[in-house]
Design a protein that fits this description.
By secondary structure, the chain is an alpha+beta fold. The chain has a six-stranded mixed beta sheet, covered by helices on one side.
Length: about 130
C-alpha cells in the first residue's frame, strides 16, 4: 500500500493536469507536444523499452498504434526527494481494431516529476502492465 505524503493542492492538481495532457496528446498523436512534457534528459520506460532523452522518446512514439485511447485513474501524488514529486496512477489502454473499440491492457504509471504548475515535467515515467 502506498501512503501519500502531504502535497499542496496546487501540486496535486498540476500533476493530474500533466497526466491528463499526456494521455490526450498520445491519443491525438501530437507527439511533438507530448515529447515536450519530458525534461531534456527524461527517461521513459514503456513495457520494458527504456528510452533516455527527448529524441529517443519521440522516435519511439512513432510506433504507437493509431486509434488509441487512455483512461488514467487512481492517481496518488506524494512528495519525493530533491525537489521531485512522485505519482502513481492506473491506466486503461484501448483502441480500435477491425472497426471495433476494445480494451488492450491495464497498466500502472510510476512517475517522477520536477517543476511547478504548468512548468511541471516528467523526469522519469515507467509504465508496466498489470
Amino acid at each position: 500500500m502506498t501512503t501519500s505524503k502531504d502535497v499542496p493542492v496546487e501540486t496535486d492538481l498540476a500533476v493530474r493536469r500533466l497526466l491528463a495532457r499526456y494521455c490526450l496528446l498520445v491519443d491525438d498523436r501530437d507527439f511533438d507536444q507530448l515529447t515536450e512534457l519530458f525534461t531534456e534528459d527524461g527517461r521513459f520506460n514503456a513495457l520494458g523499452t527504456d528510452m533516455h532523452g527527448r529524441p529517443a522518446i519521440r522516435e519511439w512514439l512513432d510506433t504507437v498504434p493509431d486509434a488509441m485511447f487512455h483512461h488514467v485513474t487512481n492517481v496518488v501524488v506524494s512528495n519525493g526527494s530533491h525537489d521531485t514529486v512522485h505519482a502513481l496512477s492506473d491506466c486503461l489502454v484501448g483502441g480500435k481494431r477491425d472497426g471495433a473499440w476494445s480494451i488492450w491492457m491495464l497498466g500502472r504509471y510510476h512517475d517522477t516529476l520536477v517543476g511547478d504548475g504548468r512548468d511541471m515535467h516528467f523526469a522519469q515515467r515507467i509504465f508496466t502492465a498489470r
